[in-house]
Write a structure and sequence with these properties.
This protein has 564 residues and is mostly beta strands. The chain has three helices and 44 strands.
């Protein structure tokens, strides 16, 4: 088939299928599936690794979990508040392919901790409570790997802190209860061996003893290499290299808090036009609670959660927040960026705040936010779960496009009956509308590169991608094919640390052989300011329908070390 014939066929199929496909996509509402009736622990923290296994963490002082450690292994801690000798696990590895679990041994307390994956694919998990408050824990993605722990790896206690990977491959750990500072891991320079004071964290604290409203701050790497940091209802652009505030952003209209315990969530919307001189970056923050909600909930009075999202282009010369209204109120909601650029708002409640027994009226139905649709028409309510996901719930995106959902334990220990919201050990998946079987003809399959082992790529590198469709029956419409690159986040307390999606530059589609496959060139991001080094999932997206992803490793650039 000639190039001209192929283009004509593209145009005909585009006219025939694209409008109808997008209309049907709007009518699909997603599907839920119970994966495990009991994973043994509460999924308080989750991280997907590049071996397609999910590391899940609870806390060590809930008491005995529902899954035993192997080979008679036990955790001994004479200072433990719950159980001093505990032969049950408080961390597990979930294998997505086989739907099986492997218990992991962890010694220090991970309650309300944080994490990020380094450029080599190792999970670096930090902080927590009690003996875990200064701990650094690491685990590699291998079949028999287990946690390695340094109980004194941090300079100060990090409880409710936020981590982010930096352009040079190091981690920054920001804040924590009573800690108005940040530090780096690993430590390379003399200045790294002291915490760096950040006045912004102190200024955004409402009440240190009752309701801070700035814990688990929302931290994102901006396209200029600085950090966007949001706490309470305010944000700054921060140069972490010299500890200076580059820019002060307007407060969110209305002044209500969005960070713990008035917990909403936030995402960096997909980055695109990566080759342009100025790449735009836009933040979306949704949900949260009114300022007195936490205190009132402690008195048995549950106030309505916030029903708004705030969106702002942080790279604009004169940025301002624009408010949008969700289909309903939501607190403790997670926000997951999907491969096609839409945002899934999932989990949480409609009244109260974060905290033990501080919320009622769970929200069972996810909301889908479509950032490229016209304002006022961006939200869609999807099919509900039957499981309440309250405080200490989590959600992450898997490589196959499903969203894995677990957790919920609004109690101070394991309580399975006699309470309104018992400890939840069930683990489920939500298949967004794009996974509906009616779209199988539109769903691309990535033929090359394959997913047998992650391909190593460098910044600005171009490579050939080959895609095909079911039975060779669908010809892709050139203008509706894109490639996205996703950084799997560390999810806890309604925030997905390090989550980002980039739309890569891709060339014109070409026919590839006689099996109705198509090839095109894809170009990696030009700078680690746009995408820090590490493992990412690549998706081919056709008419809003993503393929199953493939893993790639974006390698470090030496010139960005160690100062970045």
């Amino acid at each position: 088939m000639s190039t001209l014939q192929l283009k004509l066929l593209f145009l005909l199929l585009l006219l025939a299928t694209s409008n109808g496909a997008l209309q049907v996509l709007n009518e699909a509402k997603g599907q839920w599936q119970l994966l495990q009736a009991n994973i043994g622990i509460v999924a308080m923290h989750m991280q997907l690794l590049h071996n397609d296994r999910v590391i899940i963490l609870d806390r060590t002082d809930f008491g005995f979990s529902n899954i035993s450690l192997p080979n008679g292994t036990c955790r001994h801690d004479p200072t433990e508040r719950a159980v001093r000798t505990d032969c049950t696990a408080h961390s597990v590895e979930y294998d997505i392919a086989t739907n099986t679990l492997r218990p992991l041994f962890i010694q220090t307390n991970t309650w309300c901790s944080s994490g990020s994956v380094d450029s080599y694919g190792r999970l670096v998990q930090t902080g927590g409570d009690a003996d875990g408050a200064r701990a650094v824990r690491t685990i590699d993605p291998c079949p028999a790997c287990n946690w390695q722990e340094d109980p004194n790896g941090l300079l100060v206690r990090r409880w409710y802190a936020t981590n982010h990977i930096l352009p040079g491959g190091r981690h920054i750990i920001v804040g924590g209860r009573g800690e108005f500072n940040f530090e780096f891991f690993p430590k390379k320079n003399p200045a790294d061996f002291r915490p760096h004071f950040m006045p912004f964290l102190k200024d955004t604290t409402d009440n240190l003893r009752q309701e801070e409203n700035n814990l688990y701050p929302f931290v994102f790497l901006n396209v200029d290499g600085n950090l966007f940091i949001f706490a309470n209802n305010r944000a700054i652009l921060f140069n972490y290299r010299n500890n200076t505030v580059v820019r002060i952003y307007p407060a969110i209209p209305g002044g209500e808090p969005r960070c713990y315990p008035s917990t909403g969530s936030a995402v960096l919307l997909p980055l695109n036009s990566l080759e342009s001189e100025t790449v735009e970056a836009e933040i979306l923050i949704c949900g949260g609670a009114t300022r007195p909600a936490f205190i009132r909930a402690g008195q048995g009075m549950f106030l309505n959660a916030l029903n708004t999202c705030a969106r702002m282009k942080i790279t604009n010369q004169n940025p301002n927040w624009v408010l949008e209204t969700m289909p309903g109120s939501r607190v403790m909601n997670d926000m997951i960026t999907l491969p096609n650029g839409n945002v899934l708002i999932i989990n949480g409640a409609s009244e109260g705040s974060a905290g033990y027994d501080h919320a009622v009226n769970p929200v069972f139905a996810p909301f889908l936010y479509k950032p490229n649709d016209p304002a006022g028409n961006r939200f869609e309510e999807l099919n509900p779960s039957r499981i309440a996901r309250m405080y200490h719930s989590t959600a992450i995106l898997a490589r196959d496009g499903r969203v894995l959902v677990g957790g919920s334990n609004p109690r101070g220990n394991y309580v399975f009956k006699g309470v309104l919201f018992p400890t939840e050990l069930r683990f489920e998946s939500f298949s967004p509308p794009y996974l509906d079987p009616q779209f199988s003809d539109l769903r691309p399959t990535i033929v090359s590169p394959n997913n047998l082992s992650p391909r190593n790529l460098t910044y600005k590198e171009s490579f050939k991608m080959v895609i095909c469709f079911k039975d060779g029956r669908v010809v892709a419409a050139p203008d509706l094919v894109s490639v996205t690159m996703y950084a799997p986040p560390f999810n806890t307390h309604s925030f997905s640390m390090n989550q980002r999606l980039l739309e890569l530059s891709n060339g014109e589609l070409r026919s590839s052989g006689s099996n109705m496959s198509y090839e095109f060139d894809v170009r990696m991001p030009p700078s680690p300011f746009l995408a820090p080094p590490g493992f990412y999932i690549l998706f081919a997206v056709h008419q809003g329908i993503p393929s199953e992803g493939i893993w790639i490793q974006l390698q470090e650039m030496d010139k960005y070390q160690p100062n970045y």
